[in-house]
């Protein structure tokens, strides 16, 4: 039996999650007994519907907790935007900058940031900014930046120290015709060959990782929930059926809840599902048992990390009724390793899409899924490819059919991202069962509220983009007005 078929496991195609209905209670037992949502697919959240008249009493009873929800935001701007006030000069220092394309002068989001001869890494945020704490031993090494379709940029680490306003320009890197024969047409054979080569392209031994995780909920254009955590990750072998494991080392949260809110979104299983998006580890998530449901087309070649990669688009076969996926695969031309994958679930204009995510809901509420987007990225090191980053964004449109004739709706966007910031091969052990993150965990309920000017300390994080910074300022202002 070939690897791809043998690696298919006995669980549903997408990671499981749950959507629950409640009326101001956080008791999971009570929630399940009431009208509710049970999610079959990875929406990464559960949805609680609050009726205002039932929730005012509960709200005021929880007032002291709500104040705590905002306490940590007083220090967030300081901890994420202050320059390196506690540099730990003897052991490490922080490098900061912004990555832009020299052709467009636009920021390059999710560009990979690594350091020569070190396993530390990070990514740029949506505005192109990054910060990365590196060991003092790398002072004479090179910072390496690479991005899809651009030439790698190497910068001496020493030139970036104590200089937070570095604007780094990447130059486009078109494929030369002499480098590789330009191909087009059917890409099915390439993708199937790539799936067969997973055991040789990805690590056969488990390893340990440190990762930064962020999840958020937006109501309209405003963030109403932010959760961040540094994780320890046990990354299982790509040759086994063992699942990855994660545990929270440190985390924090902020939530904006008012008595007027009728819908509250919370993540459930966000960390587990972010790791499950490792398509090389779990190809059946998208491709089923043999990728037979899709058309694959070679769209050309592109440079990533100064190496040519195939661009392969995929769509479901015409006439299939199932809601499947569409997207783009980037395969390393030499090894056929999956280097990156961007894909969407085909939920647009499908009235039955909500039934994929929701099993039960109040009869008077209508939920439409606007879109569901996913990204997964890998990095090569010594001939092996390692999971490096994944992101999810799912948006919903919620309305009550018994209010104002169902004419008014509210849009919600839930998102998550995880970036591996360090990797090591010593002391590789699985975590005790009571420390592991479970797919049913609500991460916001596993972290505390902190007031610490140097909260993240020596850990690498994804710099918050401007929208998140604005949300932090808004939540901080609300807290000051409450006092």
Describe the structure.
This protein is of the alpha+beta class. The protein has 2 domains: 3-77 and 180-482, no CATH class; 84-170, Carboxypeptidase-like, regulatory domain (Immunoglobulin-like). It has helices at 3-6, 28-33, 52-61, 63-71, 73-81, 188-196, 198-201, 270-276, 284-287, 353-357, 466-482; strands at 46-49, 92-101, 112-115, 121-123, 129-135, 142-146, 153-156, 167-170, 185-186, 207-219, 222-235, 245-255, 263-266, 294-304, 307-316, 325-332, 338-345, 365-381, 384-400, 410-424. It has an 11-stranded antiparallel β-sheet with strand order 9-14-15-16-17-18-19-20-10-11-12, with helices on both faces. It has a 4-stranded antiparallel β-sheet with strand order 4-3-6-7, with no helix packed on it. Strand 16 (325-332) and strand 17 (338-345) form a beta hairpin. Helix 5 (73-81) runs antiparallel to helix 11. It is globular. Residues 4-13 and 16-89 have low confidence and may be disordered.
